[in-house]
Specification:
7-stranded mixed beta sheet; 13 helices; 11 strands
Length: 337
């Protein structure tokens, strides 16, 4: 059986990039985990030339490819910027424009959104950055529709229904949200199980949706008991996803009114109880589609969707695919029958 060609990822390197984001990108795509079932990746550090790229803290990054390698990449990643007001070198902006025009997905972490904005790629689209920089992004690039509350977002989803879909163009919020976006990109191209394997090795959460708020109000000390109760309720819900759980029933289990439960739940997790339940059911269905040969109605039942039709509707709305197509793409045992 022929070996799988590596998935080629270009890390765009230029002065002013953040060392943390470079480390995240390298940890996700630059570590060989093929012995654990992760597909092979080829991560290259691409710059205008081979000179070391300075980074904060006395660090430097050694490029191993020039910007021409972006023509071969399957994905281009822009790390966050230390100073979002500094101009990005014109050759880097030109390379970003060419890659996106060629149909290559482009993703920017944190303040890397300013690089995409300087390239004009975000004009007329939604974008996100660190919550402390949203006003600055809005002022500096008024043609960009800055979203205040999200972990990551795909600008290509803004296209009109009748328009030809463009290449994915991702931006993310700050720091940990960059990890979330990287794992989401892995999940999109290689499946939930691969993303979960990488997340486990990084000791991080494998699944936070892009619509989750990036700034979460933490419970005050006086509400620690409520937070503990909500943790127990979430654990209970995960064990009983196959049951017809309702927000009211979960609130009763927490000893709260439905209104108080929803308020505390959203403050603690950044999403509403209904959205959290849907996210967990989608994740459970993805795992079952990848790991088992169960029939679609049984997967829908175990994940708590009730019917295959409902599950199919949520897959289409949230994942832009169908359960059958998802299984065909990501289940090693799928035979097409």
């Amino acid at each position: 059986m022929p070996s799988m060609p590596p998935y080629r990822v270009a890390l765009l390197a230029f002065p002013n990039i953040r060392a943390f984001d470079v480390s995240v990108i390298t940890e996700v795509w630059g570590t060989d985990r093929t012995d654990r079932g992760v597909p092979p990746f080829e991560l290259r550090r691409c710059a205008a030339d081979r000179a070391p790229v300075p980074m904060p803290g006395g660090l430097s990054l050694a490029p191993d490819r020039t910007l021409a390698w972006l023509d071969r990449a399957d994905l281009v990643i822009v790390p966050g910027l230390v100073d979002p007001l500094l101009p990005v070198p014109p050759p880097v902006l030109d390379a970003l424009r060419r890659a996106h025009a060629r149909g290559v997905p482009v993703a920017a972490l944190c303040a890397g959104a300013f690089a995409l904005a300087q390239a004009g790629l975000l004009d007329g689209h939604r974008a996100i950055t660190h919550w402390t920089l949203t006003d600055l992004l809005r002022r500096q690039h008024p043609a960009v529709s800055v979203v205040p509350d999200a972990l990551f977002i795909d600008a290509s989803a803004d296209a009109d229904a009748d328009a030809t879909p463009g290449a994915p163009l991702w931006t993310s919020a700050g720091t940990a949200a960059g990890i979330d976006l990287c794992l989401h990109l892995v999940r999109t191209h290689h499946g939930a199980e691969t993303a979960a394997t990488i997340a486990r090795s990084m000791v991080t959460a494998p699944f936070r949706t892009g619509t989750q708020a990036q700034f979460i109000e933490r419970p005050a000390v006086a509400r620690d008991r409520d937070a503990d109760a909500l943790a127990g309720v979430r654990e209970y819900a995960l064990r009983h996803l196959h049951e017809p759980l309702t927000v009211g029933a979960l609130a009763t289990r927490a000893g709260m009114s439905a209104r108080s439960f929803a308020r505390h739940f959203t403050a603690t997790t950044g999403v509403t109880p209904a959205r959290w339940l849907l996210d967990q059911r989608l994740a459970a269905a993805q795992r079952l589609l990848e790991r088992t040969d169960l029939a679609m109605p049984e997967i829908a039942r175990r994940a708590g969707f009730g019917s295959e039709v409902t599950m199919r509707q949520h897959f289409a709305a949230r994942l832009s695919t169908s359960p059958r197509d998802y299984r065909a793409a990501f289940s090693p045992s799928y035979s097409g029958s």
